[in-house]
Structures are given as C-alpha cells and as structure tokens.
Design a protein that fits this description.
Layout lengths: L26 E2 L2 E2 L8 H7 L5 H21 L3 E8 L2 E8 L15 E2 L4 H14 L21 H6 L2 H5 L19 H8 L17 H15 L3 H10 L11 H4 L29 H4 L2 E2 L1 H11 L9 H7 L4 E2 L6 E2 L4 E5 L2 E9 L4 E7 L4 E7 L4 H12 L18 E4 L3 E8 L2 E8 L17 E7 L2 E3 L9 E6 L5 E6 L2 E5 L1
Antiparallel strand pairs: 1-2, 3-4, 3-12, 5-6, 7-8, 8-9, 9-10, 10-11, 11-12, 13-14, 13-20, 14-15, 15-16, 16-17, 17-18, 18-19, 19-20
C-alpha cells in the first residue's frame, strides 16, 4: 500500500563522500539508545573485491547519505542495494527492531508495501500475453456482478483504469475480511459503498482499492487465489524464493518491524505488523533488497521467457500525464526524468515501514532502499539524491495565496493551508484507518512551510517534508475542485 502523504519519497539530498562514518542510529538526552555500531563486516565485504571506481564511489555516497539520515530521523534499520555497470552491491545498517534487535543484512525481509502493485500489474500483463485478459475490456467481462457506487463507472471501468489509478473512486479503503481464501472477493463486494470522487479515466489519484479489484480479476482469470497466481506466474519462474505474502512465511526468517516517530526516546514498534489478506494485491509482499534487484533486472531484460520485451515496454510507457510528484503513470510504474535520466519507480509504505524501488532502463541501473521507520522517506530521499536521481530544484515565486488557503480532506487525513507570520504553512493531520479500518491515527509530522513554484503548484522547501510537492486541480469553470497531496485528491471542506 502507499505511504500516507508525509512518508512519500521525494529525492532531495546532496551526494556524500566515499567513506561512510560510523553509524549512530539515534541519541536520547546525550545517551545512545542503541549501541554504536561500525559498518558490519558483510557491508565492507560487499564494497570489496574487483569493483569499478565509479560503482564503489556511487555506492559509498549512497551508504554515507543513508547513515547520516538514519541518525537524523532515528530510523532503526535500513537495507540498500545498487546495480550499476553490471555490478551489484548491497548493505544493511542498524537493527530490525528496537525491542528485539537483530542486525539488518542485505537479506533481511522488509514489507515493501505498494511495490507489490508492480507484481500485480506484471502478472496481469502475463495473462494479456496468454490471451486470457484484455486490459481494455470492461472489468465486468471477468466479474459480471461487480458493483460500484457509480453504476455507469461499474459498467465501463477496465483493468487498465485499475492499473493506472484512474478509476476515480476513493482509494484508501482498508476493511478486514479475515484470512480466508474468500477475503479478496468479499473486499470487492464492499467496494459498492465507496464514493466516486472524479470522472473515470480523467485524473490520476492513488487508488489502493482499484488494485483489490485488479487482484480479484487475476483470481477469476487464473481460477486460483491471488497469492498462488503471483507465485506461479512470477515468483517461481523468476527464482524469487525470499519474497512472501504471508506472515507465517516471513516470521521464520530475519525480518524487520516498523516503527513510529517519537519526539523523545526510542521509536516505538508499530503494531499490527501483518497486512490484511484482502489488501494483498495492493501492498502485502515482504522482500529483500537483493530480491528487488533481481526484479529490476527482469524488468530491464528481454523478459526471460516470462513476458515479452514489448509487454515490459508497454508497462513503462506513459498511459497518462500526471505532472506533479512524477511525470507520467505507466502500467503501475511512476515514470520521471531526473537529472536527464529516465527513471521507472515505485514506492511503498506500510505501518512504520517505507520502501523505494527504482531503475534506469537506459543505463541498466537499480536503486532500492528499505527502511523500518515512519520517517524512512527522508532516508530514501537522501539515498536517491546520492544516486543522482534527485527531484528538480524548485524556486519560489511570489503570488497571492489567498484562494488556496483553507482545509482539504481525504479518507486518511486532513490538510490545512494557513498563514502564519507572513508565510503559508501546511498542517497534515492523520485521521487513522490505516493499516486497518479501526487503526488510530499515526503521529503526524510538524507543520511545514510551503511555497509556490507556479500557479496551482506548491512545494515544501525545508524540514521533514522537504521536497514534497502538491497541486490544485480545477473544474471546467476554473474553480479549485481538488488538492492533490501525497498522490491523493483531497476535497475542499
């Protein structure tokens, strides 16, 4: 599943030196709450051997940036891997849990959240190639009884809409329907109660619920439960033997738990850990950085007999221009150009875990970063900048913000734009409802100053939300209809 807005990934750091400093995870009142740790031997080993100077330098910069931000954000543990010039390097820093600490290694399993959506989309493309699924046929071709709040949308929505977040209904719906094989089918039945927000196919707005429906299409087409379908279509053929959906598979291996922000003391462990089975198609996989590099190699390959290069290219082709956060949406993938480099990427956020996976198809390069803290997005930002895929620099322009001020609301959070001391600031207030329907609100970030870089577009120039971008969407009459923040369309209230 996607991280709430303030956890979103937005590269915004400077490259660091090759030599990583010793790791301080965090300090409280001048006393380390986790023992000071030098870089683990397996990290140094990963950096050794016959490596090109460029690869070692880039990886060293990435590792140093991660360590600095771990100390700044009190992130307990991070794993990172880089593929560049055909050479793969991986490292782990810190610990899996503040309560039951084990060293993080490159094989430690983290929840990868919404990166799972790329597996759902890729599996759908396998079925397309087999002639069993048409992305542009109405979903009712496969699920004739599906009902949505808008009857016309239910009649016309296609799998392509689902895989590009353009269905238009409220996307953050996290009801729990138990752990049985019927959980996803029951979830899809519940979608009839979710309000339609924007016209079908016209506006990109992050939609977890659309992937429940896509997962159910895969179940019906394959006549199998979703998890078995992904195993048989992708995980097995690609040799991804340490990527799992179910907690009982994860818990027998070294794995990370999430942590929430804490103004004082040790970051508390985030509970619950498991992702509800009805949500699996949107964001339930646990994996390692090594496995994700393998996933990146596949998506830059000839398809390895699993999928044709033409289908992989179709996934990485623009399906709709987005224009903020990233440039375009492909079939599940975010597409952007960063520092002149074409980036294909996806992030993920679960309860206290933030993940990033991106590849540069023109260079054969991959970066993946997995973290176990609510502020892990800041660690990701630093790593991405050190890797050379920073977001564009924004310059503030002088404009009257009066028409933008006010409150905006979505299923998971409220945002208020207000003036204070001559500046505009953004106050983000989580409502709860993630990762389960009755989950209490996560701790919110501090209020953030914002500035406009163009009419209807703003950014956060400093602080924990630095680099976050948002925009206002207008209706046919030129009135502000939506505030898109963290990928979600938020209604004025």
């Amino acid at each position: 599943m996607s991280a709430p807005a303030y956890e979103a990934c937005s590269p915004a750091r400077q490259p660091r030196s090759l030599s990583p400093p010793p790791l301080w995870v965090a300090r409280r009142a001048g006393t380390a709450w986790l023992r000071r740790k030098a870089v683990q031997p397996w990290v140094a080993e990963a950096c050794g051997g016959r490596r090109s100077i460029r690869v070692v330098t880039v990886f060293g910069d990435v590792c140093a940036a991660i360590q600095e931000q771990m100390a700044e954000t009190a992130t307990p543990g991070v794993a990172v891997a880089v593929l560049q010039d055909g050479e793969e390097q991986a490292a782990g820093f810190g610990v899996t849990s503040t309560e039951n600490p084990l060293d993080v290694t490159p094989d430690t399993l983290f929840q990868i959240g919404s990166i799972t959506k790329t597996f759902t989309g890729t599996a759908a493309m396998v079925l397309v190639e087999r002639g069993e699924l048409d992305l542009d046929a109405p979903v009712r071709t496969y699920l004739p009884d599906v009902k949505l709040a808008d009857a016309d949308v239910a009649e016309r929505v296609t799998t392509r809409h689902l895989l590009t977040h353009t269905g238009g209904w409220e996307g953050d719906h996290f009801d729990d329907f138990g752990s049985g094989d019927d959980a996803l089918a029951r979830m899809v039945e519940s979608l009839a109660s979710i309000p339609q927000l924007t016209p079908l196919g016209e506006i990109w707005s992050y939609n977890n619920a659309g992937f429940y429906l896509a997962g159910r299409v895969i179940e019906v087409v394959t006549q199998s439960v979703y998890e078995r379908a992904i195993q048989e279509l992708l995980l097995g053929p690609l040799g991804l033997a340490n990527t799992f959906f179910f907690p009982e598979d994860v818990m027998t291996r070294r794995f990370a738990v999430g942590h929430h922000r804490s103004e004082e003391g040790v970051p508390p462990v985030a509970r619950p850990w498991p992702i509800g089975r009805a949500h699996h198609a949107a964001g339930a996989l646990a994996s390692s950085v090594r496995e994700l590099v393998r996933w990146g190699r596949f998506h830059m390959s000839d398809g390895e007999g699993v999928l044709s290069r033409a289908s992989l290219d179709e996934m990485q082709r623009s399906q709709l221009h987005v224009g903020s956060i990233f440039d375009d949406i492909g079939i599940t993938w975010a597409i952007a150009v960063r520092n002149g480099r074409r980036l294909i990427a996806h992030g993920g956020g679960t309860n206290g875990q933030i993940a990033f996976f991106g590849f540069l198809p023109d260079e054969g390069a991959v970066l993946t970063v997995l973290t176990n803290h609510q502020r892990g997005g800041e660690v990701v930002n630093a790593a991405a900048e050190a890797f050379g895929i920073r977001d564009p620099e924004r310059t503030a322009v002088d404009l009257d913000p009066s028409e933008y001020l006010g409150a905006y609301t979505s299923a998971l959070a409220d945002v208020e734009l207000e003036r204070e001391d001559g500046r505009v600031r953004l106050v983000y207030t989580p409502k709860g409802g993630f990762p389960q329907k009755d989950s209490p609100p996560m701790p919110g970030p501090p209020p953030a100053p914002v500035a406009f870089y163009a009419p209807d577009r703003l950014f956060v120039p400093e602080g924990p939300l630095k680099g976050t971008e948002a925009e206002f969407l207008r209706d046919a009459n030129g009135r502000i209809a939506w505030f898109r923040f963290g990928g979600r369309t938020m209604a004025p209230r």
